[in-house]
Amino acid sequence: MKNSKYLPLLATFVVFVLGYVICISVFPNMLSTRVAGNLLTDNAFLGITAVGMTFVILSGGIDLSVGSVIAFTGVFLSVILRDTSIHPLAAFAIVLVLTTAFGAAMGGVIFFLDMPPFIVTLAGMFLARGISYLLTTESVPITHPFYSTLQEIYIRMPGGGRLTLIAMIMLAVFALGIILAQRTRFGTYVYALGGNLTSAQLMGVPVAKTTIGIYALSGFLAGLSGIVFSLYTSAGYSLAAVGVELDAIAAVVIGGTLLTGGYGFVAGTFLGICIQGLIQTYIVFDGTLSSWWTKIVIGLLLFGFIALQRGLMWMSERSARNMRHASAAAQASGA
Q1: Bigger pLDDT: 327 or 130?
Q2: Tell me, what CATH number does 35's domain have?
Q3: Long-range contacts: 122-128, Cβ < 8 Å, 24+?
Q4: FRET label pair with 72: which of 88, 89, 96, 261, CA 20 to 30 Å apart?
């Protein structure tokens, strides 16, 4: 498995390159910085969410609450900015503390009560969405001047494209996520948990601290995604981001992360986000295809990557069996 762990990432890269070549061969205008800038901006909130989901899946878990947390964040910000004189930066800080604590609480329940992450985060999904409904059931516009200021921040790229603030935030989150996963002790612990929980405990991995940290990180990034989404839409709505958790999981799996945990890369998730954005952009350029084709193509890709993952697991198990048999034969001949 060690020698083939980069294969899913390579497959994702090949799919993206081939898809992009096909797109620009049909619609040459897609080869522009304008399209690239729009793709990054439109998928910024999803990309940030997917980084947190990558860490959760790498650890062998799942987080179904992220879409509801995004909705809660947007509703919380829109209501508090409408009804109080608090500055948006202070509101951002408050909501990030709340979402991080929410994620940490779910991680604590998962570890200390030995509950399946699916059940705990499903409960968290209903809880966060329900609180959003309690705050308001209407779409609340955000008209604070500071939002307009943030929305006007961008870097002009060659060719006239704009790298907006929220796109820059997403790219920064991916860069920091890559460093956290590959260059820190926390990242090593995450991979260890996903690889084998018992072995991780025997190696002295602080399982409780790491589990809580993983879900706290997911909650923090879901809150940050909610802030980005509020900047993107200039509103808060309790029904927003329905199904985003599934889109994030799809991006992570298409990016080459194994659903069983232990193997995967944050960079692969970025490619998964780009593939989803590429499909959506192609449909927009075509103009005759239904937006539901995005779901159909992503579903087919998911089937393909899950089959690839299963094949790699089968190869790994077969290799391990062969090594055990060879070792046993060597010991028998030596005796």
Answers
A1: 130
A2: 1.10.3470
A3: 122/64, 122/65, 124/63, 124/64, 124/65, 124/68, 124/69, 125/64, 125/65, 125/67, 125/68, 125/245, 126/68, 127/65, 127/68, 128/65, 128/68, 128/69, 128/71, 128/72, 128/102
A4: 261
